[in-house]
Design goal:
With 715 residues, this protein is α/β, with parallel strands linked by helices. Among the domains are: 185 residues, Dimethylsulfoxide Reductase, domain 2; 124 residues, Barwin-like endoglucanases. 28% of the residues lie in helices and 20% in strands. It contains 25 helices and 30 strands. The strands form eight sheets. The chain has a six-stranded mixed beta sheet, with helices on one face. Strands 26-28-27-30-25-29 form a six-stranded mixed beta sheet. The chain has a five-stranded parallel beta sheet with strand order 11-10-9-13-14. Strand 21 and strand 22 form a beta hairpin. Helix 2 crosses helix 19, helix 5 runs parallel beside helix 14 and helix 12 packs across helix 13. It is globular and about 70 Å long. It binds ligand MGD (2 copies) and molybdenum atom. The site of one ligand MGD has 30 residues, from helix 6.
Length: 715
């Protein structure tokens, strides 16, 4: 089969099929034009159904990233104080020898004192979760619980639906009602927007549920602004109305759900009149939303991350995930819920990561509490049943042995991890040996003992799944590495060799690894040709054209039903039914704290940054200007803050500064600091994570970035 423009060569000019590596649901198919060895254009593939020929504001300028003069180009060692960022060039041999010697020395005592730390700098399966995992498994290093983004929702969804499988985003255009719930689609998932617009053109109503008037909420037919972290209560009240007014799809509920009678009793505790006060919404708003949701079909919920970054985030997602089973919305391919499609792919994770290489039953450290971990404490959450009632117990226990070496790649924890004060105190430890493998000299890189240069996506090979569509993608390497940069996989291959790891898996090429990712016998991968994937750059999973995963039940839960009642949760000692778990830091749940710090702060992504990626490059900084705090006119007036004033945002954990924007986009009682800024590029070396907490969520032990109270002062 021939594809237009595919990996085509004409003279010195070639086009190469690639994949966007960034942490975003859209995982776009790229076409890279290379002239005489230099990439001259990065465009979205026209033939890929969700990329649809366009890219976001950030990846449109990917060449600014690849060819930035700020790139780290060779290995370096630290010659100044930790955090000052003063380095001296060394050879790759010296860098790798230093790391291998240090790791061997620590491993001789206890390899668990070596801690890998990575997240989604690249989402590629080769560069993100293959050779690295194999290396650390064989070494016996501590494992890392990668909780900084999505595990609360994933856990809540899993106990209810069974797996990260949901509505096909390509069917959104046929929905009649779309709830955009805790998602800023235009910023963080822009390739879904054209389908939402098409639905709107065909008469659909679009409702945003978001405490903030985001770019997306602004363009919806209706904006409902609950207090942060109260979504669970809102969903329970919707169910109260749906059940009490007889709007339930009885046939669907009888056949395909578990625990309806218990749910019916539970939601009696959440009448709209009570929930109105909890959520800060009008009772009529809740009742109307419930009626519209239950009586407009097909209805689809784009449920995303905003609601998850609170203490009760796992339960909130679980509760919302019950809604489409109650109304039978799953019956239609354009109905149901889309949280993440990642569980649809059937990737052979064991072949990639080789957990069989683990020999020492190592401990697991939670990345969202890296500050505590570096300072010697392990943070965790568990359940206990007291007097027949489930309670969540938050624990801080000694971490022994202490972390002696840290290897950071694909992540910038000094900027993005919560409670920066603790994180920085940990990174400053003189007795900690830190390796950072990076494209740029980030806030984290400044604390490295050894800093290694990393390649960008154009310089490496990879295979990708997605969490916002149903296509596999392949990234063909387009250009040679710049300077002495190396891909993650190559560095771990070289380190494995130096450590004397001789299992054949340490010699596999990137292409071999990519091939193994789809080597399993999962039905969604049947018939997919690796060669076709490589050639065209993308291929749809083996799914029917109209994919309605739960039209006839077949949920991935133990019962095969949508579990309103979850035996799995009961076993853990957790509440087996949907419930409302309030934020830890809110006026209602922590009145004493709120007396000192009365404002809730949320810090969702800025439009032109991708977490902290791109936040160091001129075009993007120019677009975002400077750190900003959106504050409601009433809250501003109470503090004599005028539009444009510089303000200090603080609590017991720390403080950061920003320029105030007095605006009704922020609701009263809630301030918004779009993020994530590099600390060292701000006027006082701080960012929003100076005030966020390391507390973990109820389910999934995830970070609680949006569960924080602060006070704001004019400077
Ligand atoms: N441009 C850009 N795109 C991105 C990213 C980026 O940094 N920049 N990051 C990527 C990553 S890693 C992720 S995880 C996703 C995240 O993207 P989204 O899923 O969109 O999640 P957030 O940006 O965390 O929050 C989305 C909205 O939720 C709102 N929100 C905050 N708290 C609550 C709440 O309690 N309830 C409700 N209902 N809403 C709330 C926020 O105001 C925000 O407008 O985006 C990805 N895409
Ligand atoms: N206050 C606040 N904090 C947040 C959030 C928020 O909304 N508010 N969002 C949170 C969320 S959702 C997430 S997912 C995390 C994201 O946290 P991270 O995954 O740490 O994301 P980035 O900040 O983009 O940092 C990724 C780094 O990896 C590097 N990198 C990219 N590709 C490669 C590669 O191939 N090899 C190597 N070695 N390095 C590479 C990039 O240059 C970049 O510096 O942040 C969280 N932090
Ligand atoms: Mo994320």
């Amino acid at each position: 089969m021939q594809y237009e423009n595919v990996n085509e060569k004409t003279g010195g000019r070639r086009t190469i099929r690639g994949a966007c590596p960034h942490d975003c649901p859209d995982t776009c198919a790229l076409v890279v034009t290379v002239e005489d060895g230099r990439a001259v254009k990065v465009a979205g593939a026209e033939d890929h159904p969700t990329t649809n020929g366009f890219l976001c504001t950030k990846v449109n300028r990917y060449l600014e990233r690849t060819y930035s003069p700020q790139r780290v180009l060779f290995p370096m060692k630290r010659v100044g104080e930790k955090g000052k960022g003063i380095f001296e060039r060394i050879s790759w041999d010296e860098a790798l020898d230093t790391i291998a010697t240090k790791f061997a020395e620590i491993a001789a005592d206890d390899p668990q004192a070596i801690q890998p730390y990575s997240y989604a700098g690249t989402m590629g399966l080769v560069q993100g979760e293959s050779m690295d995992r194999r290396f650390f498994h064989k070494l016996g290093a501590s494992l890392l619980d990668r909780t900084i983004c999505a595990t609360a929702g994933a856990a809540g969804y899993k106990v209810t639906i069974g797996a990260s499988v949901g509505a096909d985003p390509e069917r959104f255009n046929d929905a009649r009602l779309i709830l955009i719930w805790g998602s800023n689609t235009l910023t963080s998932n822009v390739h879904l927007w054209p389908r939402i617009l098409e639905a709107k053109r065909k008469g659909a109503k679009i409702i945003a549920i978001d405490p903030y008037l985001s770019l997306t909420a602004e363009k919806c037919d209706q904006h409902i602004a609950p207090l942060p972290g109260t979504d669970g209560a809102l969903a329970l009240a919707m169910m109260n109305v749906i059940i009490s007014e007889g709007l339930v799809d009885r046939d669907y509920v009888e056949r395909y759900t578990l625990g309806f009678e218990l749910l019916r009793e539970r939601v009696l505790d959440y009448p709209p009149s009570r929930v109105a006060a909890m959520t800060g919404l009008g009772e009529d708003v809740i009742v109307t939303l419930a009626r519209e949701y239950a009586s407009t079909m097909p209805s689809v919920i784009r449920l995303n991350y905003g609601m998850q970054r609170h203490f009760g985030g796992g339960m909130a997602v679980r509760t919302v995930a019950c809604l489409p089973a109650l109304t039978g919305a799953w019956r239609d391919p354009a109905g149901g819920i889309l949280l993440s499609t990642s569980g649809t792919f059937g990737i052979n994770t064991a072949a990639l990561q080789r957990p069989d290489l683990i020999w020492n039953n190592p401990r697991t450290v939670n990345m969202s509490a890296i500050g505590d971990a570096l300072l010697g404490s392990h943070r965790s959450v568990r359940y206990e049943t007291v007097d027949g009632r489930s309670r969540i117990i938050e624990e801080l226990t000694p971490l022994s042995p202490p972390i002696r070496a840290l290897y950071v790649y694909n992540s910038n924890p000094v900027a993005v991890a919560p409670d920066s004060g603790k994180v920085i105190e940990g990174f400053k430890r003189e007795d900690l040996f830190t390796v950072v493998h990076e494209i740029f000299q980030t806030d984290t890189a400044d604390y490295a003992d050894i800093l290694l240069p990393a390649t960008t996506q154009l310089e490496q090979t990879d295979i990708h799944k997605a969490y916002g569509h149903l296509y596999l993608l392949y990234n063909n390497r387009a250009i040679d590495p710049i300077g002495e940069a190396k891909p993650n996989s190559e560095v771990f291959r070289l380190l494995a060799e130096r450590m004397g790891f001789d299992d054949p898996c340490f010699r596999e090429s990137d292409e071999d690894i990519a091939r193994s990712a789809i080597s399993g016998d999962h039905p969604h991968l049947q018939g997919i040709s690796f060669d076709e994937l490589k050639e065209r750059g993308w291929v749809r999973l083996n799914l029917p054209q109209t994919f309605a995963p739960f039209a006839e039940g077949n949920f991935y839960t133990p019962s095969g039903k949508c579990e309103f009642f979850s035996e799995t949760l009961a076993h853990q000692g957790a509440d087996p039914l949907p419930a409302y778990i309030p934020p830890k830091e809110s006026v209602a749940s922590a009145p004493e704290l709120a007396a000192k710090y009365p404002l809730a702060i949320i810090s969702p992504p800025a439009h032109n940054f991708l977490n902290s990626s791109f936040a160091n490059l001129p075009s993007f900084i120019h677009a975002e200007k400077e750190p900003r705090l959106d504050i409601h006119p009433e809250d501003a007036a109470d503090r004599e803050i005028r539009d444009g004033d510089r303000v200090r945002i603080f609590n017991d954990r720390g403080a950061f500064t920003a320029r105030a924007k007095v605006t009704e986009n922020a609701r009263p009682g809630v301030v918004v600091a779009l993020s994530v800024w590099w600390k060292k590029l701000t006027s006082d070396g701080t960012n929003a994570n100076d005030v966020t907490s390391q507390r973990l969520t109820d389910l999934g032990s995830a970070a609680t970035f949006y569960d924080a109270l602060v006070e704001v002062d004019r400077i």
